[in-house]
């Protein structure tokens, strides 16, 4: 038996549990309550100012979160990967460890701290909480790529006349892009689609896109909910096509 | 000099990252309902956690048990399914390989809300009543890709003739798999298992949508429901601290062992 | 363009340590403008370290590095007028061929049209003109090599540094590139400093070879000098094939080895002095004329090597010699051999016996080399005295199991000397012990070391 046939069980499994569900989302998105084809759900989204507003807010928060994570996380990853500045493996582990503690727990912990300190919950706390939650996911892949970076590239750049500053911008940063891409993938979309986190951190004042999907499904408005999910799928599809460096991004993860 | 600023930056970030956890840990040793007020040192919360006497903490314990059970079962199945799949994919060529790899990546790229909603619709469509089974199936579907991803590099590093050598020496495919492939792939399988396990432990949205209405709670859903009711159950503080400690100890052990094997190899 | 006498690089008493390990030990050398110099030696000899000191990626612990007479030790690599071709090319994967080569020029803010001219010119020099827009990952090893060379040369450096650039190529490609590099050097006229462990490569390419071992320079000379007149056993063994034999200089121009006496051309060694003798396998000739015959031997093995036959013979005096000849001789046959005086190279013995520094523990025990050894009681020497311990090479006991010896070590270097092996042992403490033995050991074998008490000659050492 050819070993390539060993993949068949998994392909069947995925067909049922990955492909079919997504197809169903599409089906429901384009159906009304009686099972007829309709574009009403989709058009409803584009006319519902609330939904559009939420969508815009979600995108905004996601972009801000991603950018802040990169701004804070890249230097951290760079320092951790730089043998001259950091020899301790402990610090690296300490940055990774929060990823293994339940995300909801960490968010709740943050919310409780805000409560305790008397800081009112709102956009500021939301952003802070998001960065807090997602920072390790940005640091880890960037660290991985930087740590594996072949030092001879940096030396070659210096040999050709680049000062340390130039070496960083012209060689280190471009070559670390797969790690950044991986980090962005792990931060951007999840931010748009989370719902529990925004509930906790803003006392439900600010809703994110994930929240309205969840609300609709829960109140049995499956068609509209599916439509919203479908729109999110399109966005994911677009963003994945932009980052065709997917293979490298995978390497950054493991 | 540069080193000083660099280290300061790192430790400042770490302090921020861990401040909430440490605060929670501190306040797990006091009984007050409200986080922030210290009513004297006490380990009552920990006792409550395990005694299951208080009604709230009772179901908390059940939630923890469910979480662990689901994680363990789904991660194990993921590990087996994923390893066999990885071998299969590794031996595919060209278009087919690309297609299957793409399929494999989908659960990882999809936000958990989408995965949750889509699986919810699936189970409705199939008239599956939702409960333990559906949650476990759902977790397997998003855990297996991580196993595949962990095992593939090991397959690439492995000598391609090893499997044929086993067959040449008289092993059946199943024997070859067990006696030859698995030992070589074990590190990848283990890290895949750990990843799948972690993803399952950490999951909220998928579980939320696929658990149905029988009252199945995992840790995440429990916390969600609890927070909606207004504020942390105090016992949760004790639980969080315990989890934090366990993970810390595990990581220390792993690292000490890694450092030891590195020294031995020098 | 021939090298001038001007020194472009001077290294004066340069030393470098990595932690406890001394990687370069008081190195001094100079490089002439325009010449092709090769640093040659086995792994770990310090050649790459020397190159990195010149290029600026390492700083010396002691000594000076001068460029045209000026000390450059403080200047960072990006300010030095040199360019390096790295061992694994280090081509930037995120840039195509053109941009890789233009990298240095862009940093110097050279105008675009000038960049284009120079890049095209250098691509022509390395025969890669059509590859401007290619991805570097799509190139073969040899092609990447040329791009790396082009990238370095386009900046018109004063010195081109090459760190084992051909190591990753297959044999044919390597030989072709060697010829191209040599022609490039002739054409460009700039100084080339080349690092390799391949002695054939060094002999082919260089104007001057610097042979290094264990952080020290062994010999500097032209390829012909180094090949024909190695100054010590290491160089003789490292370069080409050799027969290295223990000998005795009877007087000027007369040396004895393999229990025969020969005329030779070396003088100035003194009378009746122990020496080492080198004879290249291609320099031992067969004859059928009894008048020319200097000694006889029996052929032990004969292997066809393509260019010549390689034969091992047992001499009538019990020594094994390697001979290379265009004609084969049948195994078992008795042959008559002679050697021309010109072809006998006599070298000073670096040492005639082991000399260690130690301290007496008591009347019958001396501490040295990190262990305590039994010895015979010595008159006039008491416990605590600092002593010098001498022992002959053949009086070192090597044991298969490290635990059976007083101290332990590893076989570091092997030299076959016709009728015995001359080993260099590196002890766990880092000391060198030289051993003559007929037992067969391999480089890297772990050994235990001991001495028979009567073989240790002990004398008092003055506190210097």
Secondary-structure map:
The complex is a heterotrimer of chains A (254), B (266) and C (464).
Chain A: H1 8-29, H2 40-47, H3 49-81, H4 89-96, H5 103-117, H6 123-148, H7 151-159, H8 164-175, H9 177-193, H10 196-202, H11 209-218, H12 222-242, H13 246-253
Helix pairs in contact in A: 1-12, 2-12, 3-6, 3-9, 5-6, 5-10, 6-9, 6-10, 6-13, 7-8, 9-13, 11-12
Chain B: H1 2-27, H2 44-51, H3 55-90, H4 94-109, H5 112-125, H6 132-157, H7 162-168, H8 173-202, H9 205-210, H10 219-230, H11 234-265
Helix pairs in contact in B: 1-11, 2-3, 2-11, 3-6, 3-8, 3-10, 4-6, 6-8, 7-8
Chain C: E1 7-18, E2 21-32, E3 36-40, H1 47-55, E4 62-67, E5 70-71, E6 82-85, H2 97-107, H3 112-125, H4 141-153, E7 159-163, H5 171-188, E8 191-196, H6 199-205, E9 208-213, E10 216-221, H7 223-228, H8 233-238, E11 243-251, E12 254-257, E13 260-263, E14 273-279, E15 284-287, E16 295-304, E17 309-315, E18 320-325, E19 334-339, E20 345-348, E21 354-362, E22 365-368, E23 371-374, E24 386-391, E25 396-399, E26 407-416, E27 421-427, E28 432-437, E29 446-451, E30 457-460
Parallel strand pairs in C: 3-8, 3-9, 6-7, 7-8
Antiparallel strand pairs in C: 1-2, 1-4, 4-5, 9-10, 11-12, 11-14, 12-13, 14-20, 15-19, 16-17, 16-19, 17-18, 21-22, 21-24, 22-23, 24-30, 25-29, 26-27, 26-29, 27-28
